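== Folding task for one protein ==

=== Format: two labelled lines per protein ===

==== Paired sequence and structure tokens ====
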Amino acid sequence: MSEPISFVDFKPGEVMGSVSHTYSQELSDAWGEIFGEAASESSRRAEAAGVATVMMMRAYLEVVTPRPPGNIHARQQITTQGTPCLGELISNQISCTSKEVRRGRRYVELKAVGSGNGQRPIYTGHITLIWAT
């Protein structure tokens, strides 16, 4: 196993990596289990917007690894430009936008961008972390 990512490893402006996820029937079924029913046509957009958030967080967890213990997930924000379609492959890219030390804590800002078929914009997200080391 490699060493955990440290604060000095973050380079503002650099892409850290990307990963693709499919908005699968299995993911839709799991969403239905959480909310007690399968998505209907009227609730499919709400489900898809929630799935975009799931994809953003999965991309962060897969790209920014290994992480040291003790990090704090301070904030996240997501703006959807579209919603993924069932069966669509979504490309998720994670980049570092900034880092700074404030009040003795190491803050890291990450940007997550998701795009679907034909580079169709799905979401733009921002994740703020207080990095442990």
